[in-house]
Design a protein that fits this description.
2 helices; single chain
């Protein structure tokens, strides 16, 4: 009887150790994902401003060239 109880306890503790994560790594995936989202958001904002400025410059140059064609 004692050997069955010991076997059950060791099996249970082994399963707990295999399925549980260490406490110091909990939430690491969430933090890493949040950092990635912030970085990509900053890159997206920078790309939007670069695109907007490029298109504004191109529009100004095209309008001036079209105005020259009409003269």
């Amino acid at each position: 009887m004692n050997s069955i109880i010991i076997y059950a306890l060791t099996t249970f503790s082994t399963l707990i150790k295999r399925t549980s994560r260490p406490a110091d790594e909990s939430g690491e995936g969430v933090v890493s994902s949040a950092v990635a989202v912030v970085i990509f958001s900053a890159l997206g904002v920078a790309m939007w401003y670069a695109f907007r400025d490029t298109m504004n410059t191109a529009t100004t140059m095209i309008n001036s060239q079209v105005a020259l064609l009409g003269n």
